[in-house]
Write a structure and sequence with these properties.
Radius of gyration: 17 Å
CATH class: Alpha Beta
Structural class: alpha/beta
Helix content: 40-55%
CATH architecture: 3-Layer(aba) Sandwich
Order of helices and strands: EHEHEHEHEHEHHE
CATH superfamily: NAD(P)-binding Rossmann-like Domain
Number of helices: 7
CATH topology: Rossmann fold
Distance between the termini: 25 Å
């Protein structure tokens, strides 16, 4: 099922990773006016670009006029985030949707073994990144009194299991950020939510945990469908919510 994003401008931060690529593809299939995808590595951009270009050779997408734009952006640098949003507004006039897929994991140590640098890395990539992109995207969304924002937190942000204090704390902070922003913008008809996935079935996770039961892991395609739904008008009654996505784990 493709949701209606006709004439909308969609920003996918971190849209070239294992999950981000699936999200970017689903948005393109929904035929919005434009999908802007941030990236860091050229190889990730190339892989995503080739995959999305292939969509336009499919019969179902032969009339798709969606613009696909890639923007190299370090989401941890405030000036780059501000420039990203400003350039999109200058070109398209507004941003309707933000799907923020930026994030990272570090674990395997007790809190007394965790260094300050490791702690700060998790806070930056999982929480500061979400703060910065939310901060700068809210101004144009509030101006038009419309917007959909989706962040990816983690099941660890709600219920910690130990040995990942920096990661789980950063993801818990993201949940509170979402809930706080919801209260701040609810009069502007802006929806902001986050999902709380357990382990996602990616090649990097398989390499890190080769003896795990991959069948119980969440498939990126399934999460992508949920993310796109939460960015659509079909989910407008859902706001300020942290949605558990554990599958059969």
């Amino acid at each position: 099922m493709y949701h209606n994003f006709k004439d909308q401008i969609i920003l996918v931060t971190g849209g070239t990773g294992a999950l981000g690529m699936e999200v970017s593809e689903l948005f393109v299939k929904s035929s919005p006016r434009a999908v802007v995808i941030t990236y860091i590595n050229d190889s990730d951009r190339l892989n995503t670009e080739e995959r999305l270009d292939a969509l336009f050779s499919d019969h179902e997408n032969e009339n798709n006029k969606t613009e696909i734009e890639f923007a190299r952006t370090d989401i941890l640098k405030e000036n780059e985030v501000q420039n990203l949003v400003d350039k999109i507004i200058d070109k398209y006039g507004r941003i309707h949707v933000l799907a923020n897929i930026v994030g990272g994991y570090f674990g395997g140590e007790t809190v007394d073994e965790t260094t300050e640098q490791e702690w700060e890395k998790m806070m930056n990539i999982n929480l500061k990144s979400a703060f910065l992109i939310t901060k700068y995207i809210l101004k144009p969304m509030k101006m038009y009194r419309f917007g959909k924002i989706l962040h990816v937190s983690s099941a660890s942000g709600e219920s910690a299991i130990g040995m990942d204090s920096a990661y789980s704390s950063s993801k818990a902070g993201l949940i509170r950020l979402v809930q706080s922003v919801k209260e701040e913008v609810k009069d502007f008809e802006i929806n902001i939510n986050c999902i709380l996935p357990t382990i996602i079935d990616t090649s990097s996770n398989r390499r890190a945990m080769p003896t795990a039961d991959f069948q119980k892991w969440l498939k990126p395609q399934d999460l992508a469908r949920l993310i796109v739904f939460l960015c659509s008008e079909d989910s407008k009654v859902i706001n300020g919510t942290a949605i558990k996505t554990s599958g059969y784990a």
